[in-house]
Amino acid sequence: MRLLLLAAPGGGKGTQGERLASHFGVRHISSGDVLRAAAGDGSPAGREVAAHQQRGDLVPDQIVFDLLVPVVAAAAARGGYILDGFPRTVPQAITAADIGARLDLTLDATIYLHVPEPVLVQRLLARARPDDSPDVIRHRLEVFTETTSPLIEYYRNRGILVEVDADQPPESITDEIVSRLPES
Ligand code: ADP
Asked: Can you give the pLDDT at residue 184?
């Protein structure tokens, strides 16, 4: 099973990523977590990651691909993955599809977790990670609207989008996703 989760910040990608990974027995790969781990490693790339994450800006593609592609390839070789947060822009999706086709890593489906914006803001303020201050939250929501939400249309056009109402209890969301996935 190879899935991509798409959602605004606070949309529940992390929660559903964990739940779906344990349901299907595959690895949950959160690009935010992979990048946050790199941000603490003291390398030049790590310092660059930290600076972008603190502002709520996207990390440069080259760094993202260098860090994420090996992790995704290893997971695919072990039965699949639940990707959360990567690809996050149309250019990343195009490059990832290219690499995916060459390495036989292509997606089965993309799940869009839809949550109304006021609910997102409430959830993020309640979570209070270091990159969850009110200003940074506002900026990350703008980045989502401008650069990530076009992916909804991109995957719909490719015929692999499954859109779910993600303003429900986590168990109901997981059940809905599992019941609506294409037969593999
Ligand atoms: P959220 O989904 O709540 O925004 P994430 O943990 O997915 O949180 O991402 C946190 C930060 O990590 C983003 O604001 C961005 O700086 C960086 N990031 C995550 N994924 C990507 C990506 N695919 N490309 C560029 N930057 C990314």
From this structure: 56
